[in-house]
Amino acid sequence: MSDTTTGIAWDYLIQGAKVFDGSGELPVREDIAVADGKIAARGTNLDPEKAHEVIDGSGRWAMPGLFDIHTHYDLELEVAPGLPESVRHGTTTVVIANCSLGLAFGSQRKDGADPIVDCYARVENIPKEVLRATADRVDWQNPKQYIQHLNKLSLGPNLVTLVPHSMLRIEVMGFEASISRDPTEDELKAMESLLEQALDDGYAGFSTDALPFHYLANQPNTRKTIPTQFAGYPEIKQLTDVVRRKGGVWQATPPKDSTVDTIRTFLLSCGRLHGKPLKTTVVAALDVHSNRKIVRLARFLARVLNSRLLKGDFHLQALAAPFKVWSDGAVTPLSEEIEELRILNETELEDRDGRLKILNDPTYIKQFRAMWMSGKTGFGPKRLKRLLRLEDYAFNRTLEDMTIDVCPLKDWEGKTFAEVFARVKAANAGKSLESSDAEQDLLKDHFSQVKDESDFVLAMLRAFDRDLSWHTVSANRDERTVRNLLMDRQLLPGFNDSGAHLTNMAFYDGNLRALKLASDGGDIDVAYMVRRLTRDPARVFGVKGGSIEVGDQADLILVDPSALRRMDHNNTVRRQYREEFRHEQLVNRTDGVVPLVMIAGHPAWHGNEFDGSLGRKKMGNVLDTTF
Predict the structure, then answer these.
(1) Could you tell me the pLDDT band of residue 2, with boundaries at 50, 70 and 90?
(2) Where are the alpha helices (DSSP H) in 488-587?
(3) Burial track 374-401 (b if 16+ CB lie within 10 A, e otherwise)
(4) C-alpha span between 184 and 297 (Å, rounded)
(5) Which residues, including other chains, have CB under 8 Å from residue 383's CB and lie 6 or more apart?
(6) Contact 588, 573 (CB under 8 A)
(7) Confidence band (pLDDT; 50, 70, 90) for 5?
C-alpha cells in the first residue's frame, strides 16, 4: 500500500521491538515498516505518520517467521489451508511430503489400490475417513499440476514441498509391484526422470523412509511396510544422485535396526566420497529413555559425516519437546515396533470385536505376557539391558510412566497405570477400597483374574479398547540434554510432525520450546536459536526466507519473552474437535506467547485471535527453490 495523497507509505509499522534478524548476530532495538507484503524499512525512530497502522513492539522480540521442517500437512492443506495450529505458534513456513509420503502424483487410485489411505493411515495415525475425504478431492495427476494446485489454495504459511519416494515408486511401478520387488532398469530411469523434472518445477528435494515400523493399512498387506522400504541401496543412491546434481535436499530416516546400513546410507551425504556434498536432513535426534546410547551415536555420526575428512552436509532433526505420546488403547505410533502390539493395529479402527478376539486368544496371551515382562524379572541379558537403559524398544513398558488421560471410568482419569494396578491387586486380595459402584462393577467384571502387570494391561485393553487414552514420555525427559541437542551446530531443530498422529501427539509449539530453552543463555543464545529456526533451514531446503532485510517478503513474528518464560509445556495440550476433519485432535494452546504473526505482510494472528481471512485469503506461497 502506498498513498501519496495522504503521505501514507507503509501498511504497518512495528515500533521499538528487540529485533533478532535471523543472522545469529546480537539483537538491536528498532522499528520495522511493512508495505505491499515486503519489509519496506528498518531503523530507529521511523515516522509513524507514514503508516496505516502502528503496532507496539516494546517489550517484544521481533524475528523472521519460524520454519517447521517436518510436517505431514499434505492432507490438512486440502480442508484447512490456513494451518491455524501452526500459525498461532509463529510458524510461517512448513515443509510437507516428508517420510516418502505425499500427494504429488494425485490420488493414484488404480486396480483397487488407494495409496493415500493405505500409506498414511497407520504411519501417520490419521483415520481412514479423513484420508478418503481428501483423496476424493484430488484433481491433479503429476507434480507440476500439484504445485499449480497448491498455489491456488488460500494458504496460511508458505510451503516447501518434497518429492515423496513411496508415491514415486507407486507411480512408476504400480502399487503391488512397489511393495514386492526391485524396479527394472527402465522403471528406475523413469523414476529418475520424474524426480529431476519435479526438482526443475520447484520441488525442494526428495524424501525417503527406512524406519522398520511404518506399515500399510490395507488387506492383505498389513504386514508389509510402505513402498520406499522395498528400495535397495542402489536405488536410493541413484535417486539421491539426481538430488545431489540438482542441489536439492534429501530427507530421510535411519534403518533403525542396522547400524551398518545406517552408516552406509548416510555416507551418501559426503562430498569426499561422492564428488559433491548432498544436503541431508534426518529424523531424529531423540534422547530415548529406554536406550540412552541412541542419542550419543546420533551426535557422533553427525560429527563424523560433517568432518573435513568426509565433507558431508548432514543435519539430524532434534525435537525441542519431551516426546510425550498418547495411545488410544494400543493404537499409537510406537506400538508398531512390537509385534504383539502391532497385530492389534492391523485391524480396522472400528473393529473392536476383532481386537477383543485377539486379546482373548490363548496363544496371543502367552506371547503378550512374554513381551510385556521381558527384562523385568529374573537375570540374563534382557534384564541387564533394561537396567542399563539399552533396550531395543522405544515403547515405554513402565506402568509408573503411563498416565491415563481419558477413561470411561472417570475415577481413573489422571492416575498412572501403576496406581490403578495397585487398586486392582488390593481388590483381588480382598482389601477394602473406597470406590464407586461403577469401579466395583468394573473390577469384578474385567479385573478379577489379574495376577501380574501383563494380565492387568491385557485387561485394560479388553475393558476399554480405544476409549482409553493414556500418555507416556518415551524420550527427551531431561531438559538439559534436550537443550544441548538443540544448541548442537551439527543438528537442526525440527521433527514436530505437525499435521500427523491426530490424537497421539502435539508438538505444534516445538519451535517456541526451542526458543524458551535457548533463552536460558541470554540474547546470544536466543539469536543463535532464531537463526537455527529461520535462515539455516532456508539454506538447507534451498528457499528464500528466514530473514527480514529490506526487500524481503514480510514473514515476521513478535514474541513476548515474559510469556515465553512462563510457558508450561506440561499443560498446553488439549483435545479439540476439528470440524474440518470431523474428528478430535490433540492441539496446543500457548496463547499470549506470540502476539503477532505476519505472513507476506498479512497479520494472520494478532493478539490472541486469528485474522478472519486466514484460510480464506491467500497469504503464503509455495517457495521457489534457489538451486
Answers:
(1) very low
(2) 510-519, 523-533, 535-540, 561-566
(3) bbeeeeeebeebbeeeebebbbbbebeb
(4) 36
(5) 375, 376, 377
(6) yes
(7) very low
Q: Of all helices (H) and strands (E), which one includes residue 583?
A: strand 583-588
Q: Distance (Å, rounded) from C-alpha 103 to C-alpha 404? A: 36
Q: Please, which residues have CB within 8 angstroms of residue 6's CB and are 6 or more apart in sequence?
A: none
CA distance 86 to 555: 14
Question: Cis peptide before 157, with omega less than 30 degrees from 0?
Answer: no
The predicted pLDDT at position 518 comes to 98
Q: Which uninterrupted H or E stretch holds 56?
A: strand 51-56
Q: Residue type for 145, please?
A: Q
Is there a cis peptide before residue 604, judged by omega within 30 degrees of 0? no
- The secondary structure of residue 65, as a DSSP letter, is P
Q: What's 229's DSSP letter?
A: G
Q: What is the pLDDT of residues 551-566, one digit of tens each?
A: 999 999 999 999 999 9
Q: Which CATH architecture has domain 66-322+476-610?
A: Alpha-Beta Barrel (3.20)
Q: Which residues contact 280 (CB under 8 A, 6 or more apart)?
A: 249, 250, 251, 252, 266, 268, 269, 312, 313, 314, 315
pLDDT (mean) for 568-581 = 88
Q: What is the mean pLDDT of residues 227-232?
A: 96
Q: What is the DSSP letter of 91?
A: E
Instruction: Report how far apart, in Å, the C-alpha atoms of 472 and of each of 327, 456, 469, 477 are.
Output: 9, 17, 11, 10
**Which residues touch 140 (CB under 8 Å, ≥6 apart)?**
106, 146, 148, 149
Amino acid residing at 58: S
The pTM assigned to this predicted structure is 0.95
C-alpha cell at 141: 495427476
Distances (CA, A) of 423 to 16, 411, 420, 548: 58, 12, 5, 58
**Could you tell me if residue 395 is left (phi over 0), alpha (psi between -120 and 50 degrees) or otherwise beta?**
beta
Classify 569 in phi/psi space as left (phi over 0), alpha (psi -120 to 50) or beta: alpha
523-555 core/surface letters (b: 16 or more CB in 10 A; e: else): eebbbbbbbbbbbbbbbbbbbebbbbeeebbbb
Is the predicted pLDDT of residue 138 greater than 80, yes or no? yes
pLDDT in tens, 365-402: 999 999 999 998 888 888 888 888 878 778 889 999 99
Greater confidence (580 vs 47) lies with 47
Kindly tell me if the per-residue pLDDT of 16 is higher than 80: yes
Q: Report residue 6's pLDDT band, with 50, 70 and 90 as the boundaries.
A: low
* Ranges of each domain in the chain: 66-322+476-610, 325-473
CA dist list (Å): 265 to 99, 180, 275, 280, 620: 15, 21, 16, 11, 35
Q: Using CA atoms in the order 512, 516, 521, 524, what is the torsion angle rounded to 10 degrees?
A: 30
Beta strands in 358-418 (DSSP E): 403-406
